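Hi support team,

I submitted a single chain yesterday and got back a structure, but I'm not sure I'm reading the token output correctly. Could someone confirm the output below corresponds to the sequence I sent? I've pasted both exactly as they appear in my results page.

Thanks,
R.
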Amino acid sequence: MSVQKVLEQIKENNIQFVDFRFVGLSGGAHHITLPSTEVDADTFVNGVAFDGSSIPGFRGIEESDMVMMPDTETAYVDPFTSHPTLNIMCNIHTPDGQRYDRDPRSIAQRAEEYLQTTGVGTTAFFAPESEFFIFDDVRYESSMNTSFFSVDSEEAAWNTGRKEEGGNLAFKIPVKGGYVPVAPVDSQQDIRSEMVRVMQESGLRIERHHHEVATAGQAEINFRFDTLTKTADNLLKYKYIVQNVARQWGKVATFMPKPLFGDNGSGMHVHSSIFNGDTPLFYDNKEYANLSKLAMSYIGGILYHAPALIAITNPSTNSFKRLVPGYEAPVNLVFSKGNRSAAVRIPIAAVTPKGCRIEFRTPDSTANPYLAFAAMLLAGLDGIKKGLDPIALGYGPFDKNIYDLPEEEKKEIRSVPGTLDEALDALEADSGFLTEGGVFSQDFIDNYVALKRQEAKAVSIRVHPHEYSLYFDC
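Hi R., thanks for writing in. Yes, this is the structure output for that exact sequence:
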């Protein structure tokens, strides 16, 4: 969309405000709003100034001036504001006009540019399945003398005996019993459908929605795949709509990987493939699971670099509360067709040559999608460049339930790091694949690791409520 068309859209839709947005290192969106009367063609040339020192991990106060440069292709009308507002995603530039190397969106774009220089293909497609919970009540506190969290849901398994509902209507979802039941067990059909309606009106192509496995309102809505940066843009839009529709319905949505103990967590299974023009490069019907040798090397790269990759695709301490065996968590660094206990699954149901893809099941939605998708692509490209063979490297295929294997066999299978600190250690030891083509800078990686170390320490030094259960009577 040209600048002129955006200006015409502002006039034709009586837009009163234009919301300029960018993404921080954590993956959260930030914004500055201008009255539409202050937006003209020069705005898209000169950008919108902001204070980079107030964004964690961006700039020091002595060099705080930064500029948002709008990407007109991302414009859409905000579905929630009282005053007609147009939202536009931006790239971050320094005052001298250079792309900022810590800008996650610019990193995603550099990854796409790097792909084209490799000669492997022209386009990488991504499709995340970002799961979430819809709760009715959320309370938490962490202070010197208090530490707790409490969540509630009208459909939660623990509410079968609750009286406060004014007559308990039963049909609660058991632990691990929430996968695609119909109403009245699935009480959230209408709110998910409303989320889908708003997403469609905002430009997302939605493929389906359903209740997920866990009790207490776990959900999934799938939107159509697209190129790397566009998919990351779409995921931010998706999360924005999910959380704001939930708010309108008097509920709250969270993408936190493990908000509940003892039931499945929320992942972000990421499907990806590479095309050369219109030609899919991952398909070969004469090979295992219809995967080409190039695709197998791509898998080899992801699994080989997975310990470091997980520092970016699972970048929270809570991520590792989900990555434990027994809850469909893909902790095993192997690949398989149709096997959800493997870190890399190859979908085989109703797959066409153009739909042939791999699914990396380990990530979760605490990841910054621009960084996660870029890092995945770079790991896969490194596997292609080096001709890594995942079978020769011992990554499978494992076409059986890995959780049921004898302990001796399980010992032969590599697992994901057990903590965020372990993943960060792996990233520090194996970051060369990320700096190929100048996609990630070493400065970015060092800064990222330092910020995540602070998060890990903030959790590790705090007293945990369960420690009272274990040790108070010592």
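A quick pointer for reading it: The domain at 123-471 is CATH 3.30.590.10 (Creatine Kinase; Chain A, domain 2). Let us know if anything else looks off.

Best,
Support desk
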